């Protein structure tokens, strides 16, 4: 209530001062207007020729009337201006007194606020400044807001540092496991790289062997082609031999048939010889019966008988020779037929050998192509293995770098854990209310 009365009195006093000021300004303005009119009248009276004496008298009369009014306005303006200045001086004194009282009140409020915030400097965030109606109320409100923000900040820092510490510990263990895994991975990659290097050497040897095998297969194809050609020539020769044997067999058969005919003729001659011998014997008997007259006929009969005996002996020898020829001919025919069968069998075997050589040639050709493909594939695999070996070497370098980075990360995490502990220690001095 006192504050409202004081404010109302100040407003009334201020209105009074404003009235004095405006009245003084009004009289001053009227005085200025009168001065301007007087000056205009004076200049009009001196610079222009008067038209008549009446007009000049009127101007002098007006000036005599305006001068007292002007003096009155000036006096009133001075009085009201003096009153305005006096009221201003009194107001200044009142303002100075009120300012001193206000400063004393502000000092008391500041001291009270400082007393309330003394524990805050020691880290006690449970304090709370009293909000009043004076100017420190806004400060106290701002301080309370700042304290609340600090409470939330310190609480967040405590929770975050705890989480960071826990996460750093977990991450440190994970980094340790990663370090071990990366070391094992690097060792395995190094072992794989060596194995791939050995495999590349083996593949090179296999490629060289397959190249030699391909050359051998090509030579085998050539040899098989030559063998097939020679077998075909052999088959042709055996066919010629078979034809010659068959022709010889036919001739021997014809010779046997001829010897058979000779045997038949010999039989006829033998019969004739026997009959001649019988006739010669009968003629000798008749010649003996005839006595002396048949002696010459008896001699002829004896000669005929001796010729018949000689013919009979020759016929027996011829018959024996013919039988021998027939026996040899039959044996030759049997041998020829056996040779023909053997030649046919040999030709069939040679033909089968030729077919086998042809299949060998085809298989050797396919094998040569397959070996060439295997050789090309082996060379490609060897090239791929070399690239893989190079990639594995780079991966090994990357694994080594990763292991080093993991070690650095582990060190950084250890530093982070230490910083988290230091951060937690730095805010551990703050005292927080329950719930933060």
TrEMBL record:
<keyword id="KW-1133">Transmembrane helix</keyword>
<feature type="domain" description="HAMP">
    <location>
        <begin position="104"/>
        <end position="155"/>
    </location>
</feature>
<dbReference type="Pfam" id="PF00015">
    <property type="entry name" value="MCPsignal"/>
</dbReference>
<comment type="similarity">
    <text>Belongs to the methyl-accepting chemotaxis (MCP) protein family.</text>
</comment>
<dbReference type="InterPro" id="IPR004089">
    <property type="entry name" value="MCPsignal_dom"/>
</dbReference>
<dbReference type="GO" id="GO:0006935">
    <property type="term" value="P:chemotaxis"/>
</dbReference>
<keyword id="KW-0812">Transmembrane</keyword>
<protein>
    <submittedName>
        <fullName>Twitching motility protein PilJ</fullName>
    </submittedName>
</protein>
<keyword id="KW-0472">Membrane</keyword>
<dbReference type="InterPro" id="IPR003660">
    <property type="entry name" value="HAMP_dom"/>
</dbReference>
<dbReference type="GO" id="GO:0007165">
    <property type="term" value="P:signal transduction"/>
</dbReference>
<keyword id="KW-0807">Transducer</keyword>
<feature type="transmembrane region" description="Helical">
    <location>
        <begin position="20"/>
        <end position="45"/>
    </location>
</feature>
<feature type="transmembrane region" description="Helical">
    <location>
        <begin position="65"/>
        <end position="85"/>
    </location>
</feature>
<feature type="domain" description="Methyl-accepting transducer">
    <location>
        <begin position="160"/>
        <end position="396"/>
    </location>
</feature>
<dbReference type="GO" id="GO:0016020">
    <property type="term" value="C:membrane"/>
</dbReference>
